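Appendix B. Chain record.
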Amino acid sequence: MAYLGVAKNTIEVLKKYNFIFQKKFGQNFLIDTHVLEKIISQAEITEEDVVLEIGPGIGTMTQYLCENAKKVIAVEIDSSLMPILAETLAEYDNVKVINQDILKMDINRLVQEENEGRPIKVVANLPYYITTPIIMELLEKKVNIDSITVMVQKEVAQRIQSKAGTKEYGAISLAVQYYAEPKIVANVPPNCFMPRPNVSSAVIRMKLHKTPVVSVKSEEQLFKLIRASFSQRRKTLINGIGNSAELHYTKEQALKALEEMGLGENIRGETLTLEQFAALSDLLQDMY
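Structure tokens predicted for this chain:
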């Protein structure tokens, strides 16, 4: 068995198939067995688990997943990788490879069909250009997921787990933390990939909340409010709300709601916690 986590085995496969890296798919293949083992252990993959892997590439992490999980569903957008995956995963009978764009699939239906609706675990080395849309698709569609463990750009991982008042804190922090508890579990330098990316990476694990950490009357309004608050970072929260095309509150109405919460008129969105955003969202809805 030629493990692809070893660089020379990856090089052999790529040469055999004359594989050309596609920049549009953000392809960077892992070539570090220690990182692969860390991902599997941090994702807590057991032989009871059905795992959805997004972007298996040539099957580097897929091999590890197959050896630890009950079943692996690997969704790959690049059709040129299909013959390579057929070879590198030939020894495993617990893997299903689907050649599709994950963002165009009905993931809820896939989970229902492949795991009878029970929670799955998501593991991926995500293309950096599409990290946020994929994570938010999984969370917002309320796919039945136990955890999401993904390799992302280090800067994005820091933003996802950051807290109110920090410079990294933003809409993505609040959106993810509404649904899950994120934690960076490994930092990964560029030399662990082929080809080497220009940025450092990190593995972040998001364990989904069984019940929401905050209760809010309208999720839709909450996220509109969060987006409005961070769309113009340097502006006050009142200006963000008043200038929003998605919300229909005046600056005076926003000021009144903030005063009721005991917050000043010059406060910025980056200082509010998720709980405070939920309270503000409900207040605005009740007032108007």
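Further analysis of this model is presented in Appendix C.
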